[in-house]
Amino acid sequence: MLFAMSGQFNWFIDDEGKGAPPTPKSAHWAARSVWFLILTAVITVIILSSWKVGQNRVAQSEEDASEAVQHILDLEHDAFLRGDGDLYFSLHSPDSDWIPAQFWPVNMEAARAGFQVTRAEAHGDFIWANLAWETGGQTYQRIAFFQWQGGQLVHMPTASGYWGAWVSEGQPWGALIFTETDGEWAAQTADFVTEAVDEICRTGCVDGRRPFTLHLANDFKETAVPGQLRIPSPRLLALDENGQPADLFWELLRQRIEAYLTPAVIRFVVLPPSLYNEQNIIDYDHAAQRFMADHPDIVIELTHLEEIPDDLTPLAAEFDGGAFTPTTAMLAAGLVHDLTDYVNTDPDFDKIDFFPQIWQGVGWQGRTWAMPQAASMRLLFYDKLAYRQADLPEPSLRWTWDEMAQDVAALIPAQPKSSPLEWGYLDTGLDSLFSYAYNWHNQCTEEATILCQNPLQTQNVAAALAWYSQMARQPGQMPDITGQLTNLSGSPQISDLAQQMRVDHRQQFLLWNFQTSRRRAAIWVDLPVDYERQILMANLGVVPFPGSDRFDGITPLWVQGSFVSQSSERPLAVWEWLKFLSYQRPTPRMIPARPSVSTASGYWTYLPRPLGDAMRTAFPFARPVLIEEQDYITWEQVTAVLSGEMTPLQAAQKRPSVRWFE
């Protein structure tokens, strides 16, 4: 009798009574046998036909799935090579943990090479796909997941039903946790770790680091939990041509184990001071000595640059971290290590102990990319004598842009001919533009600006540029300093932090020229650190940036922090160093990032009263100039508007483009 089982044909022959003489059968039985054979043949044909059709449908389904996935992968590859991050990430899940994983060096190298689908299976609205790529003369493969969402195929971090349950096994060095799907490599992984630990610790391991738990994870998340290590499954990271964990996986695993068990040497770069602080934010040399005394297993090697390089991006590749907030270009290039998982998992990290408006200044794409240390905000200084001579009441701590415009228009005409004042208002930086843009048509109903989360829109920037050009074209109201900035630097555009620092030095020069030498403005923008020096030269007052009748002014807040390089092999050690830095008292008048530090140092208590009143009024409504917003307003735009080359709206739309993945 013939049986069809799972697509395989098995013949069974009845050998019972072998060798016995045949038994005669009746004609009736013979007829029944003929019909039985005919029926069996028909059923067999039907089964074979159905199986064939089913196999063809499966093959067609796999072919369709492969074509759909390959189309998405080709779009991703093209976007990656063109540096179009917006298109690239539009094809991926918006999961906040999935996006930073694309910046891992191994993932960027694979994406740059381009993937080819070797197999794809549909599972409901998901597709499980096997992807291959070639790099360094080697062919690798990995599993990837895609999901149909509203007719669009989206690259997903995982798919339900693939990994199975979690399994934990004790090991000589601790415990190994893995999924059922990765169970076939559990013994191999455990043996590899055992050999690595024995070899590494022959030359000395840090006390207290064993036992530890290793997670063979089904994602790219990281952890700062003591005694815990995570590494993505080799299925996610890299398999070889034979479907076994590839050298890329074993190398990363070895690196993670060695970084965890052995002492670390951290190379950390510090930039020269800027106008934000005439000295560095803190004394890094002294801080390093104190840190190493508390962390004998971590050595901090500081490199103080004498000048700011034209391009900051190589610093991330050369050093383990740096004492400055990374730029958009550095982040989009994948040069900075995402700190979000450390923030969320480190039991020793107090995220609540940060001023919210300072903490937000190190965010990008919904993730945390630097450790805040301090912040700087400029204020408005005004000449009290100029106000008296103009018979104007001095501005209040909660004045409006309309009130300031009226004062600026009236101050200079009312001055005696012997007065050296020529301008009603002066800002050698961009703070007034940012403040005006943040305040324009502000619909916030909260008591603090930080709770509004309104992004800086093109129309806000256009309004600020229009306001600036109108002011600069009125006699005696505000000087056009764009020409002087260009002459001093050769280029007015602020394109990255290095250029920002140069602008700071130009601002310092211009402010000295306008204010210190001849005191030519009645109201000017300046740093709190200059308060004592300025008050020695004149009887001055201090107020925050103006606001509106219904909302206080918004002061731009420039956040200073430190980052971990993506290329660092000791990111957790650098993380410990950055945590330590966040508790250090910054240079005078820089606002500490942590309320606990400001309380311990008496920061808000010991400010001179006029300055302190203005700063305490401004700070709750201060807003960080986000990393991506720092290029939204530039001197290039201001110059284009004042020269008539562009309208304010055209200039506002002309934002520097960022090329990703470079």
Task: Give an account of the 3D structure.
The protein is 39% helix and 19% strand. The two termini are 67 Å apart. The radius of gyration is 34 Å and the shape is globular. The protein has 662 residues and is an alpha/beta fold. It folds into 4 domains: 63-156, Nuclear Transport Factor 2, Chain: A (Roll), CATH 3.10.450.50; 166-261, Zincin-like (2-Layer Sandwich), CATH 3.30.2010; 265-376 and 561-581, Periplasmic binding protein-like II (D-Maltodextrin-Binding Protein, domain 2), CATH 3.40.190; 379-554 and 632-653, Periplasmic binding protein-like II (D-Maltodextrin-Binding Protein, domain 2, 3-Layer(aba) Sandwich), CATH 3.40.190.10. The strands form 6 sheets. Strands 11, 12, 13, 16, 21, 22 and 23 form a 7-stranded mixed β-sheet that branches. Strands 3-4-5-6 form a 4-stranded antiparallel β-sheet. Strands 7-8-9-10 form a 4-stranded mixed β-sheet. Helix 5 (186-201) crosses helix 7 (247-261), helix 15 packs across helix 16 (458-472) and helix 16 packs across helix 23. It is built from 24 helices and 23 strands.
Question: What's the quick description here?
Answer:
The protein is an alpha/beta fold and about 650 residues long. About 40% of the residues lie in helices and about 20% in strands. It folds into 4 domains: about 65-155, Nuclear Transport Factor 2, Chain: A; about 165-260, Zincin-like (2-Layer Sandwich); about 265-375 and about 560-580, D-Maltodextrin-Binding Protein, domain 2, CATH 3.40.190.10; about 380-555 and about 630-655, Periplasmic binding protein-like II (D-Maltodextrin-Binding Protein, domain 2, 3-Layer(aba) Sandwich), CATH 3.40.190.
